[in-house]
Design goal:
single chain, nine-stranded mixed beta sheet, 3 helices
């Protein structure tokens, strides 16, 4: 079984609450499924869950290089130079990131209002950036964007491989077919 879940912000990618934060056990997910990979508490979007250990490894292991698409709302307006640096890979404390596809985008037409809302600052413009990664270092998108001078203020994972959030509201899940 493979489940696509749209993880809301401030929900843990595990089945037990910790530190007062809600967890996956509050969303009526089938028994016996586990997250294939994770999203940080302050990130939103697609989380795949499965009851198949082999499938879990194929989805989450970096050696299978499943493309993951993220939309990051960043402070400021990244110029061509910043986007090129992101695309070529950025040196982080734990090593160089792999090259990735990156582009500034208008606000996605599918994006939902966040709870709590993103803090709006009139003096700072923000921009959506779409990144397609083939690896998954800890907090990678946030660290990459910060390294080129554009801190992330909202992060949504849209897809993993062929699976995406299409028509899946936050806090909802559906069973999907295929890897």
């Amino acid at each position: 079984m493979l489940i696509a879940f749209n993880k809301p912000m401030n929900v843990l990618s595990q089945f037990t609450s910790e530190g007062g934060w809600p967890a996956l056990d509050g969303f009526g997910l089938p028994k016996g499924v586990y997250a294939a990979g994770r999203l940080d508490r302050d990130s939103e979007g697609l989380l795949l869950l499965t009851d198949d250990g082999g499938l879990q490894a194929r989805i989450s292991s970096p050696k299978f290089k499943k493309p993951k698409v993220y939309y990051a709302l960043v402070e400021g307006v990244p110029d061509t130079q910043a986007l090129d640096k992101l695309a070529k890979g950025v040196r982080l404390k734990d090593g160089q990131t792999a090259p990735c596809a990156v582009e500034a985008r208008p606000t996605p037409d599918w994006i939902w209002d966040r709870d709590p809302p993103v803090r709006v600052r009139k003096s700072i413009t923000d921009t959506w950036v779409k990144l397609t990664l083939s690896e998954g270092k800890n907090r990678q998108v946030r660290r990459m964007c910060a390294a080129v001078g554009f801190p992330v203020i909202r992060l949504v994972r849209w897809s993993i491989g062929p699976h995406d959030l299409r028509d899946l509201p936050p806090g909802q899940w559906r069973e999907v077919v295929g890897v």
